[in-house]
Design goal:
The protein has 286 residues and is an all-alpha fold. It contains 13 helices and 2 strands. Helix content is 73%, strand content 2%.
Length: 286
Amino acid sequence: MNQESVNLESEKITKTDITKSWIRWFAYSEVSNSYERLQALAFCGAMSGILEKLYKNKEDLAAALQRHLTMYNTQCNWGSVINGITIALEEKAAANDKEDDEEDGDEVNEEVITGIKTGLMGPVAGIGDTLDYGTLRPILMGIFIPFAMAGSAIAALLPLIIQTTFTAVMGYTLYHKGYSLGKKSIVDILQSGNIQQVITGAGVVGMFMMGALSASFVKLTTPLTITTSLKVMQVQALIDQIAPKLLPLVAVLGVYIYLVKVGPNYVKIVGFLILISLIGSAIGIF
């Protein structure tokens, strides 16, 4: 009986265990998505090694695996902090330290673990999508596309290399940070104000890059002329004297207004731009 009790005792979670869990999450978080459970299978797979060390009883292990197979979806990079928090909560639940729970006024059970996961996946995804895909990626593309178009092969690969490296470093850091601080870590991140400063600053830089890309790659000119008794004036030359790149700016603002007023229906936007371009070119406006 004593030997059985020893065999059922939870093992200590090490930094190596957490790193292995992160590697699984980093490798498979976007691989096993389904409409029914989204990232649940990847989350459960990343947690499986941890749960096997915490729950030696087969029934407890099965229950732990099952609760992490419920629908789950977040931004995989910044969402790593949720995985770390979940590991800390599972470790506390497996230890079943009632006295500490009562002192903290916070009993850790299945409902608490699932509730924290569900409550955090949306806000964290908003942060990650804004910084990684809404800001960092456009900035990198804006920097390296001109070099790639000039014939640099490495410039075509650098955005992928830089973003993958950033994602790996940030995900690894947040995974361990979430575990070390527990569920208070995300509160510290959100309440510190630093994340909002980062988002605001990155957004400003992103807007500068979008403006530069629009001026460089949106081509729109008019061949119209104004004939007077003295000479023939090119309308495009007059526009360039007043405000260079004014027509590309009008086109970009038109698309922006459509996105704000109607919504992100990109197929209609592209089709409308092609139609206007063809008509304008046929009648000699553009």
